[in-house]
Amino acid sequence: MSTDRFRDLSNTALAGRLGVPRVPLLRRYEPGQALLPGPALVTSVGAGRFAKPIAALVEESGQHVVDEVGDQKLAAVVVDLTAAVALDDLAAARAILTPAVRKLAPSGRLLLLGPEPAEASARSGVEAAATAQALDGLVRTIAKELRAGATANLLVVAADAPPAAVDSSVRFFLSARSAYVDGQVVRVGVPVGSPRDPAAMDSPTAPEKPLAGRVAVVTGAARGIGAAIADTLARDGATLVVVDVPAAGENLAKVANRTGGTALQLDITAVDAPERLVAHLTQRHGRVDLLVHNAGITRDKLLANMDPDRWNAVLNVNLRAQLRITEALLADGTLLQDGSRIVCVSSQSGIGGNRGQANYVASKAGIIGMVRALAPVVAERGVTINAVAPGFIETEMTARMPVGTREAGRRVNSLRQGGLPVDVAETIGWLGQAESGGVNGHVVRVCGQSMLGA
Amino acid sequence: MQSTPRRAAVIGGNRIPFARANGRYARASNLDMLTTTLDGLVARFGLAGERLGEVVAGAVLKHSRDFNLTREAVLGSRLAPSTPAYDVQQACGTGLEAAILVANKIALGQIESGVAGGVDTASDAPIAVNEDLRKVLVAINGAKTVQQRLKLLAKLRPGQIVPDIPRNSEPRTGLSMGEHAAITAKEWGVSREAQDELAAASHRNLAAAYERGFLDDLVTPYLGLTRDDNLRPDSSVEKLAKLGPVFGKQLGDEATMTAGNSTPLTDGAALALLGSDEWAAEHKLPVLAHFVDAETAAVDYVHGRDGLLTAPVYAVPRLLERNGLTLQDFDFYEIHEAFASTVLATLKAWEDVEFAKDRLGLDAPLGPIDRSRLNVTGSSLAAGHPFAATGGRIVATLAKLVHEKGTGEGGRKARGLISICAAGGQGVVAILEAA
Ligand SMILES: NC(=O)c1ccc[n+]([C@@H]2O[C@H](COP(=O)([O-])OP(=O)(O)OC[C@H]3O[C@@H](n4cnc5c(N)ncnc54)[C@H](O)[C@@H]3O)[C@@H](O)[C@H]2O)c1
Questions:
Q1: What is the span of the domain harbouring residue A167?
Q2: A150 with A275, same domain?
Q3: What is the C-alpha R_g of chain B?
Q4: pLDDT tens digits for A49-89?
Q5: Side-chain half-sphere exposure of B240, counting CA atoms within 13 A
Q6: Under an 8 Å CB criterion, which residues of A touch B?
Q7: Predicted model pTM
Q8: For residue B155, what are the domain limits?
């Protein structure tokens, strides 16, 4: 992995005296770390039904909650705006947020909860819809204005979602696990599948192991982001089945052994790959609680010079294999159960396009189409499917980029740095929890609010 | 045959790609390769931290530091350090003999699980000092004063410093294994063409097996090598016909054995995972095959009439008789290709009426086999043959083959025969049956 020397230099005393803009060191999760390093402001505008349970959640984690801005630095600011219907409510939010952002600590978290514009419109009229939509632009702007590794995100909550539906998402966005997820808007609906008792799932005796007892499959896990996903899911308690091409078996075995999982050497594009994966999972585990489609390749060329081999190779690995494997698992009928989760690794290029990557972009955009189409289908079985779209992530792939492109990729985002593989992994860990059933058919960017494709 | 309480299950295996000597694994030791292969097996079957009944393996070419090779490999692996281990050595029969030992303990209920196989490096072969030098060094070690030591050192002559490199030759005949095989080939009239055909088939079959993903769960890449580097997918009888003889050269025009139809010196390791059916079920692991029975034979190749590598010719009829089977009752034959001529001479001996009567004491010969069932995913000519590793490679391969086939003629369980010849005039053979 390439190291970000500029970030390190920018944090020296000399750089400070020279006025070089500081690239913040992001706070990241470590086992045993508390949800927040300092007190949180949790409040609401109007009669929001989430502020209270969220305050309780924070207090339960051992952190102090305040309802007004004081002298103290704040580790997090949570404003429940789900009851906001008018421009006056927005003004009230401004009155809370202006002093609050000034008190936000480095790597602080600003989290807004708002209503769905369409629902707001139907229930309370046009001004409510305008108010709801205003939050979208507001949070994206706050994210751009915040400094020192602080992030701002918005949960758009469906009117009929019970308060507990947002718990796993609130935990993720407040914690250091969401270090590189910034300026994002995530919709939380009524959780799919049978109702879950969060207390039973997120066992209070093991809050550090939100994936305890879950069987997770990760493709492309021999290195890079896939290996980080395996490590992170194992850390959170999952039992791993790591998959990669036979030629990558040497590293794959190491990942399997360090995570206490099993290695499955399989080219996911092989004709019988779906069948072999299903047979393997049936024999070894009888189920799969989290399927992570991570394997991906690039074969860059301008479209004008694109040959069918390059096109097909990328589409086959990045998209066709995901379609076929998902289809086979759904057809099997027993492996994916109520509470199972599917997460696909897309890319910000799949959203914004990228010169020289027509094949890659088509595959990554295709993933988003697949996720949206499958979401209502799998929901009937209590299963969710989501995508994560990484931005610039420091891996062997990005280390090989020309210096100019790499520097540009790193800096054109609100956190002024590339993300780490673990940042993508943490996001997948959140979406992979049984408790995250409220998020379905969504694309979560892990990009530090990159300007590319935004 | 007496009924055993239960049959050991073959669950799977792991090997590293085999590398031609002094190549990719030139700097890897037996311990490196065995430990890595064990870790690959642990990864494939999710055994990290697990205590197994035992791990049994060995090497033919061993350094003195390798005295507890297998136990050291276990300690360096992800298996629980409470897993016992020991070394065995029966030349090229080592891997299969190890599997027999583990299978027998499982059958007797003494252990529930075990790993068997072996490793060899021809690159990192133990180089010893010659006998003269050894005497001087021992004396120096025993000397009391520096002066005495210097005096002894001064006596050293260049001839004494020539190292003793292990040779692939029989101590009692001084002949290399290839020379022995050449004698047997001549005796049985094994033609050059037949040998080259067998060699080409081995390469073709192994290449096809790789292509269809058959080795995906049998091999784990090592030191950047992803396939056996002796494998020539484009090998052909025509190309092999161009090679000059390397063994039996004194036969002149009649010499048939070339570098193409003999196995090269190779480095590598292979292991098979065995267990009871219950242990496999508890660990949600598949049972590919059961270990049915095994037999070991030895021949007097020094003074008698038998060839060095012909012991399996004797072992198989005894094994068949004990199990009430004929040679034709098998769906797969895994006959280790030490040399193409060895396989062909073995098959000829089983077909020979006189030999059956005079030497095997049988009324009729065992008869021919269906050659399309022989070494169907290639064997040592293509993969290479790190001596002690071959047994583990074959056990795992055959277990997978009978599992894939499921049933043979008349709906009986698919069955396979393993035959491995070994230095010292020994032969180890075994039967596996689909679970
Ligand atoms: N690195 C980034 O900045 C970045 C950005 C956006 C998206 N992504 C996506 O994240 C995922 C992981 O990327 P990475 O940077 O870790 O790449 P990587 O090349 O380091 O790892 C990809 C892994 O997938 C495996 N793989 C490839 N083809 C396969 C096949 N047919 N069957 C099984 N495994 C196969 C590879 O062997 C490799 O181990 C990819 O989908 C990639 O498109 C990466």
A1: 31-188
A2: no
A3: 22
A4: 999 999 999 999 999 999 899 999 999 999 999 999 999 99
A5: 29
A6: 246-250, 252-254, 256-257, 260-267, 270, 272, 276, 283-286
A7: 0.92
A8: 131-161
